[in-house]
Amino acid sequence: MKNSLLLVLVFFTLGVAAKPKHSYVRIKTNKGECVVMLYNQTPKHRDNFLKLAKEGFYNGTLFHRVINEFMIQGGDPDSKTAAAGQQLGSGDLGYKVDAEFRDSLFHKKGVLAAARDNNPEKASSASQFYLVQGKKFTDEELDKTRMSRMNGRVIPESQRAVYKTLGGTPHLDGNYTVYGEIVQGITMVDTIASVATSPDNRPVEDIRMEVSVLKKSEARRIEKRRLGIKNSPL
To answer: What is d(CA 132, CA 168) in angstroms, rounded to the nearest whole number?
Structure first.
């Protein structure tokens, strides 16, 4: 009996230990796919994105706004049935998500962040998001950006190092909620960012997405591979 209880306890402990620390989603397009880890530090955005993904909301929506060396934006509900050339970006779901700014989460290349309108609370769109491509900056460029576009906001040295080596869009920090990052397939962003676009930044060729939530087993495998990576907000 004691041995049986011990085995049950061991299996239970292993099961608890194996639970993924984060939730992950896969974004698939005809230009490639990526896996995004959602941050636990931004639970409102995480839970809202997971809810929409599980409901299949994003399937068939477009990356409707693409700007090279900046970002690729999608999630407009109107894009599912949009005619060629139709201007997009105003569609919503009738609610917003409260801003969740965290000093440690910034606009480095590959992060997932929430689009929004000009509401004073800086609350996020319920569905529209963007993936950052950005560019690499020099110290001089970062100093100029900080003074001209960030109201003198200090960029921590650790983040400056990332903006200089990996790249990103620092002027968006503190204005748009960052709530995840690509952990596999970041080249998808570069591929989509390079496509031909119309004057309103909509890709000439429609780029539709499918978004799915990864199963716990796949999430565990990803986290095992990521063990030992420094400076990750795990």
So the answer is: 7
